[in-house]
Design goal:
The complex is a heterodimer. Chain A is of the alpha/beta class. Chain A contains 18 helices and 13 strands. Chain B has a two-stranded antiparallel sheet. Classes of the chains: A alpha/beta, B mainly alpha.
C-alpha cells in the first residue's frame, strides 16, 4: 500500500514537469523603437502572439539608448543575455553578431516569407561571415527637420525645394544667414556632439555637404578623410565660427530634439517619422515641423537608413531559440500591427498602413525613400567608430585643426 | 621579566566559544565582502594582464600597463582627476569645518535645520541633482547665464559644460555641493563632543577663540578630520556619475576622469583588460594618497 502511495505521489509530482516541458518562457529586450517603448502597445502585440502561441511566454524589458548598451554588455559578460533583442544591424550584426554572441537566422531568410524582404535590407542584416543575425521588421530614412514658421519669418523658404524637401549646401548656408539675422529662434541649428546618441544626424550632415560618403562602397573602410568630407567638416567649422550654427559638446540628439520642439533652435539634425509622431504634443506654438533631407552641393542627398529587427542571443537552449524564432516569424512576416507600432515602413511590400490613422503623417516620410543610401553602419569597428565620431567633432570645434583630428580619428577606427 | 599567568582551561573554552560566536556573527558580512569586494579586486588584477575583449582572452603580461602610460587620454584623465581631488578635498574640508563651527553652537532646532539643508544633496540622488545643475548651466536658457548677463559679468551666453575652459570647474562645483553634507554632520557631532571643561579652562586662562580652536578643539576633532579627508579623497578620485550624466568626459576630454575612462573602455569599447589595468592603477593611487593623509594626520596629532 505504502509503495503504491509513493508511486502515485511521484506521478503527481511529475505531472507539472511534463506540462512545463511544453511551455517555454523567453525574454525580449527592446530598444525604444517607435511605440515599442509603450507597455500597452507591446502587451497588445504579445496578446496577439499568445493567442496563436499560448505555449510561449514572453517577458519584456524596455531599454533606452543611454544605458541600453551597457546593460547588454554586462549581460553578455555575465551570460544573462535575453533570448531576443530588438534593434538594428549596427548592434545585432556588426557588434554582437561579429563577436559570436548571436544565433544565425539563415533559416528564416530561406523561408518564403523571408525571401520577400527587400534585397538591400536583407544584405544589411548579414554579417561578414555570411550569416544573418537580424531579421528585419521595419526601416526608415533618417532626415533633418526645420521650423517652417522660423524659415518663413526669415524669408528662408526660398532656399529650399519645398516639394522635394531638399536643398543645396549654398541654400542651407543662406538660410542659416537669414535665420541668424532675423533671430526668430535663439539659435539656427545645434551641431550636438556630447555623446553618440543620434550621431547619424551629424554624420549625414557632414558627408552630404559636398556629396561625400562615410565609408567606401563595400563598407569596409571609413572615408572621412576624403576631399569631400574634409570640405564638409571645414564648412561646418566655418559656419560655427561665423555664428551661423552652434556647436554644442554638452548635449546629445535627444536634447537637440527638445530644443527644436520648444522653439530654441530653427532646425534639428536628428529626425524621422516616429520622432514627429512622438513629439507632436511637445511642440511650442511657434514651431511647425517641416522634414527635410540633408543639404548637399548638388541638391541630391544621401540619407542614412534605419533598419530595425530582431536578433536571437546564443544562450545554448534550443527550445528557447526555437520559441524566439517563432516569435520573430509572428512579428515580422506581414504583421502590420507590429510595423505600425514602430511608426516606420515595412521591409517588404506591404499596403499603406498609416493613411486614415492617427499616424497619417508618417506616410508622408516615404518621400525620402529614394534618397536612402547604403547601410554602412555594419562597417568594421563600428562601436569604436561611434565613440570616436563625436570625440572627433568635439576636437575639431575646439581646435579647428581638421586634417590632424581626422588622422587621429582614423587611427582609432581603422 | 614578566611572568605569563596560565589561563585556566574553563576560561580558554569560554574564549574559544566567544571567538567562534564572533566569527559567526562576522561571517555574513565577511562573505559579502569577499564575494563582492575581494574577489572582484582579484579578478580585476588578473584580467589586467590579459587582452580581454568580447571575443578575446589572451595573456599579454604588462602590455595594458605599457599602453596606458602612452595613452594621452589616460594622462589627461589622470591630471583631471588629480585637479578634482586637489581642489575639492581641501575646500570640502575647510567649508564643512567652517559651517559646522558656526551651526553647532546654535539652538538644537537651528542646528538640525542647517544639517538637513546641507545633507539634502547627499540623499537627493545624483541623477536629480545633475538634472537641476544641467538646467542651471544650460547654454540657451540656463539661469546662470541669465544671472551673469543681468549682472554684466558676461555679454553672451557661455556654454558652461560645453567649453573646455569651464566644464571641469562646473563639475567640481557640483561635486562640492554633494560632498559637504556628510562632513558637516560629522564635524557638528565631533565639535559637540569636544570636552567643554578644557575649552572653559582655556578661556579662563585668557586664550583667544583661535587659540582655543587650534590648541583644544582641533586635536580632539583630528580623527574625524582624518576620516573626512580619506573619504572625500576616495569619493573625489571616484567621480563618475556627474561626468557620465553631464559631459561624457567631454568637451575634448576636458572632464575625462580615470573612473569615467575605465567605464568608457570597458563598456563602450568592450576593452575589459585595459579597463581593469586602469582600475588597478587608480586603486594604487588612492592607496598612496590615503597613506600620505594617515601619515600627515598622525604626525600632526603628535
Amino acid at each position: 500500500m505504502k509503495k503504491l502511495l509513493a508511486l502515485l505521489l511521484c506521478l503527481m509530482l511529475m505531472i507539472p514537469a511534463f506540462a512545463l516541458a511544453e511551455d517555454v518562457e523567453i525574454t525580449l529586450w527592446t530598444y525604444p523603437i517607435g511605440s515599442w517603448t509603450d507597455d500597452a502597445v507591446v502587451s497588445d502585440l504579445l496578446a496577439d502572439f499568445n493567442a496563436v502561441h499560448p505555449e510561449i511566454k514572453v517577458n519584456v524589458q524596455f531599454l533606452d539608448y543611454v544605458s541600453g548598451d551597457d546593460q547588454v554588455t554586462t549581460a553578455i559578460e555575465a551570460k544573462t543575455t535575453p533570448d531576443i533583442i530588438f534593434e538594428g544591424p549596427e548592434r545585432l550584426v556588426a557588434n554582437w553578431g561579429a563577436a559570436g554572441k548571436m544565433l544565425p537566422l539563415n533559416e528564416l531568410f530561406e523561408e518564403e516569407a523571408g525571401k520577400a524582404i527587400y534585397e538591400g535590407v536583407a544584405g544589411s542584416c548579414k554579417g561578414k561571415d555570411g550569416n544573418y543575425y537580424e531579421y528585419p521588421l521595419c526601416m526608415t530614412a533618417h532626415c533633418m527637420v526645420i521650423n517652417k514658421k522660423a524659415f518663413e519669418a526669415a524669408d528662408a523658404m526660398q532656399y529650399i525645394d519645398a516639394e522635394k524637401h531638399t536643398w543645396t549646401t549654398e541654400g542651407f548656408e543662406n538660410a542659416c544667414k537669414a535665420l541668424a539675422a532675423t533671430g526668430f529662434t535663439p539659435v539656427t541649428g545645434i551641431v550636438y556632439c556630447g555623446g553618440q546618441g543620434g550621431d547619424q544626424g551629424t554624420r549625414a550632415l557632414v558627408y552630404n555637404l559636398y556629396s561625400g560618403r562615410f565609408t567606401n562602397e563595400d563598407f569596409t573602410k571609413y572615408t572621412i578623410d576624403s576631399e569631400e568630407n574634409i570640405k564638409g567638416l571645414q564648412k561646418l567649422y566655418d559656419m560655427v565660427q561665423e555664428g551661423l550654427l552652434t556647436a554644442d559638446p554638452g548635449i546629445v540628439a535627444a536634447e537637440e530634439i527638445n530644443y527644436f520642439c520648444n522653439g530654441t533652435s530653427a532646425m534639428g539634425f536628428c529626425w524621422n517619422a516616429a520622432l514627429e509622431t512622438n513629439n507632436k504634443d511637445n511642440l511650442a506654438e511657434n514651431v511647425e515641423v517641416f522634414p527635410m533631407a540633408f543639404p548637399s552641393d548638388d541638391g541630391v542627398p544621401t540619407l542614412d537608413g534605419g533598419i530595425w529587427g530582431f536578433g536571437v542571443f546564443n544562450n545554448g537552449d534550443d527550445a528557447k531559440a526555437a520559441a524566439a524564432k517563432e516569435f520573430i516569424r509572428f512579428m515580422c512576416n506581414g504583421n502590420t500591427k507590429a510595423v505600425y507600432a514602430t511608426g516606420y515602413f515595412a521591409t517588404r511590400d506591404m499596403e499603406d498602413i498609416y493613411t486614415g490613422t492617427e499616424k497619417e503623417i508618417n506616410a508622408s516620410y516615404s518621400i525620402f525613400a529614394p534618397y536612402f543610401g547604403g547601410y554602412y553602419q555594419i562597417a568594421p569597428n563600428w562601436p569604436v567608430q561611434r565613440t570616436a565620431w563625436w570625440n572627433l567633432l568635439q576636437r575639431i570645434f575646439a581646435t579647428g585643426n581638421i586634417a590632424d583630428e581626422v588622422a587621429v580619428y582614423l587611427s582609432e577606427v581603422q | 621579566m614578566a611572568q605569563t599567568v596560565p589561563i585556566p582551561h574553563g576560561m580558554k573554552e569560554a574564549r574559544r566559544r566567544e571567538n567562534i560566536a564572533g566569527y559567526l556573527f562576522m561571517a555574513p558580512s565577511l562573505l559579502f565582502f569577499i564575494g563582492f569586494v575581494i574577489f572582484p579586486m582579484g579578478m580585476c588584477l588578473v584580467t589586467s594582464f590579459f587582452n580581454y575583449t568580447m571575443t578575446e582572452f589572451t595573456f599579454t603580461g604588462l602590455k595594458n600597463y605599457q599602453i596606458m602610460f602612452g595613452d594621452s587620454v589616460f594622462i589627461k584623465a589622470l591630471v583631471n582627476t588629480i585637479v578634482i581631488v586637489v581642489v575639492s578635498v581641501p575646500i570640502t574640508c575647510m567649508f564643512s569645518l567652517w559651517v559646522a563651527s558656526v551651526i553647532y553652537k546654535m539652538r538644537q532646532l537651528h542646528t538640525s535645520f542647517f544639517r538637513c539643508v546641507f545633507y539634502l544633496p547627499v540623499v537627493t540622488g545624483s541623477v536629480a541633482v545633475t538634472v537641476v545643475w544641467k538646467w542651471i548651466f544650460n547654454n540657451y536658457t540656463g539661469v546662470l547665464n541669465y544671472v551673469c548677463k543681468a549682472l554684466g559679468i558676461i555679454s553672451t551666453n557661455v556654454n558652461w559644460l560645453g567649453d573646455p575652459g569651464t566644464a571641469l570647474w562646473c563639475i567640481i562645483t557640483i561635486l562640492l555641493t554633494t560632498s559637504v553634507g556628510q562632513p558637516i554632520v560629522l564635524y557638528v557631532s565631533a565639535l559637540s563632543n569636544v570636552d567643554h571643561s578644557l575649552v572653559e579652562a582655556a578661556s579662563v586662562d585668557g586664550a583667544t577663540n583661535m587659540q582655543t580652536f587650534w590648541r583644544i578643539k582641533w586635536p580632539q576633532i583630528m580623527p574625524t578630520t582624518l576620516y573626512i579627508l580619506v573619504i572625500t579623497t576616495i569619493n573625489s578620485f571616484q567621480c563618475f556619475a556627474l561626468i557620465q550624466l553631464l559631459t561624457s568626459g567631454g568637451p575634448n576630454h576636458a572632464t575625462e576622469t580615470i573612473m569615467y575612462y575605465i567605464y568608457y573602455n570597458a563598456f563602450k569599447l568592450q576593452n575589459y583588460g585595459y579597463g581593469s589595468a586602469m582600475g588597478i592603477i587608480l586603486a594604487i593611487i588612492i592607496a598612496i594618497f590615503s597613506a600620505i593623509q594617515f601619515r600627515l594626520a598622525k604626525t600632526d596629532n603628535g
